Amino acid sequence: MPTRQTLLGLWLLLTGICLVLGLGLLLWLESVLQPSADVRPVLWALGLAPALLSLSIGWLLERRLLRPLRQFQILLARLVASPDAHSDYPLDGWLQPLQPDMDHIRDGWRADRARIREAHTQGAQEAERIKQELEALLQVLDMPLLICDRHQRLLLFNPAASAMFEGRPGLGLGRPLSQLLPHPSLHDALQHLPQDGTLHQLLLPGEHHWLRCQLRRLGSHHGGALITLQDTTAALEHDQRWRRTLAQLLPKLRGHCGSLNSATDALLQVQDNADLQQRLEAAIEQDSQALAEQVEQLTRLVEAQQLSQSTLEETWSNDLCTALKAQLTQQQVTLTPIGIPAWLRVDGPAILALLQLLIQQLHSQQPIDDVTLEVLLGNRRVYLDIGWQGTPLTEQQLQQWRALPLFDEPLSPRIDDVLEQHGGDLWSLPAENSDSWHRLRLPLPASSRGIQPLPRPAPRPEFHDFSIADLPPPDADQASLPLQQLEMVVFDTETTGLDLRRGDKIISLAGCRIVNGRLLADDSFDQLVNPQRPIPTESSAIHGLHDADVAGSPPIEVVLPQFRHYIGGCVLVAHNAAFDMLALRLADNSPEPALNNAVLDTLLLSRAIDPTLEGHGLDALAERFELTFPPGTRHTALGDARVTAELLLNLLPRLAARGVHTLGDALALQQQIEQGHTP
């Protein structure tokens, strides 16, 4: 709608045009007709009539419509800005009939606002009452309770939680939950809690105890979670005391059976009443045999049911390895976790005791000081492989081990009981060649996360805007080392977008370590980065990271020196390394020396090995080599880095078959591919 000034301008312009045209017409008529004195006033009146009519109509519209509309606009603005003000302009002109309706709307609005204020006051009072009742309930609640926000910062903890973590500096409002419970499995579980508030259980190992966590998503605006904790150590000790008491009772029952048998023997010597003797003998013998059988059945029932009361709970394999490494320290056995960590559903204390017993038996029979524990994902199962260099186990040895008790107590469950509880078995896998290790495989139930298929996003396009061949060559000693003996760090980045030279930044940087041809499961670098710019929605749809996820993270200027310290002088490995190295180099503004490590690119190595095959993206190669992304890890920096590491380990034997044995050979092969030559 035109403004009032525009309308006034048009009105004056129209009036002026009418006046000029009228005067021009009058002057022309005067010169042509030369009217008499009686006709001249009539001509002038007709010539000036349009201008006077325009002036009158404009004045009328201004007084009766335009000015009332301006007052109506001011009235609405005042009503919006200050609804409770009462010094309002009354409507006039042609808008005056709207005054009753306007008063009705204004009075109704003010009445509604008064009711809203009253309801708000009552709601605040009710909320304060509920808050006080909740605080009183939390004060007397014996179960430790924590509430954190979506960034896993503590919002609330009750006195029971304060007592549980007494002396721990990580307990405090606003502190990261990772300082209090430094378990990657808890961090991951909180990130994947279902939005519908479904209860999720998790078992966490500690130095001398086990914590059972119950996690539930809160439907509040901060998107946090409720965490309840239970120290199951006391329950296990109570169960052990019950078993010890029962173990003391059962020998007494067996003693009574022996006494009955002795009485039977004595009674057999009575010769006075042959008939009575015969009947007593039969009754006592029958009762003693029945009692002995019942006691034996009770004993076996108790032994078999030791694990039936335990529930299988989701456990992160790295947490299990950490607890196992601490247990094996006393036996002077070094445990090295390898492979990609995974979720599994197990009875944590029982599996921990079983693995410790198996490794102890292995150590007692062979001079073994170093074992590996590898996690392999199967179809609805997770396989734990204990690896060693020595002599493979026979089926006869495994059969003997299955009958071993887990603990040095009369009613301790046996290895067979634990296997039956988890629906698994043990079998030995001899080494395929002299360089590989013998393995003892234990299948366990996988977490429900491992069963659900994940949507596969579009792969990241390949970038080759800078050449791997331009990197400085390694020193002669490193170049001559066999690839299997190199210490390598496989890394990956996630960014705000794919156009790095136009401002896209790193938002996640992660790496994992390969030592002597083995991927270390518990040696990794994983850090979110604040890019100090918004993350586009289309990028978040791929990697799942949003602005709120990285808001509290350090900038790349802080993270990059930490990553440089983590990699040291290792060989760097990445898939489509040109993109990730470009991201690091554009972000490297520190005075320290730039990254000059040798770089292997699994994309180029795969092209060199299979030049006739199409599809050398990470998804295509993972499918080709049957590598599995644990659920929720695709397009995460650490998840992609670990699968790239497994891919490299699958490529090394094929490189060796083509005469590529050392780092220098591999770099030369990459250079040929970069220059467009087929090897």
Automatic annotation (TrEMBL):
It comes from the Bacteria. It catalyses: DNA(n) + a 2'-deoxyribonucleoside 5'-triphosphate = DNA(n+1) + diphosphate. The keyword Coiled coil applies. The chain crosses the membrane at residues 7-29, 41-61. SUPFAM superfamilies: PYP-like sensor domain (PAS domain), Ribonuclease H-like. Its EC number is 2.7.7.7. GO terms for cellular component: cytosol. GO terms for biological process: DNA replication proofreading. DNA polymerase III contains a core (composed of alpha, epsilon and theta chains) that associates with a tau subunit. This core dimerizes to form the POLIII' complex. PolIII' associates with the gamma complex (composed of gamma, delta, delta', psi and chi chains) and with the beta chain to form the complete DNA polymerase III complex. DNA polymerase III is a complex, multichain enzyme responsible for most of the replicative synthesis in bacteria. The epsilon subunit contain the editing function and is a proofreading 3'-5' exonuclease. This is DNA-directed DNA polymerase. It comes from Marinobacterium halophilum.
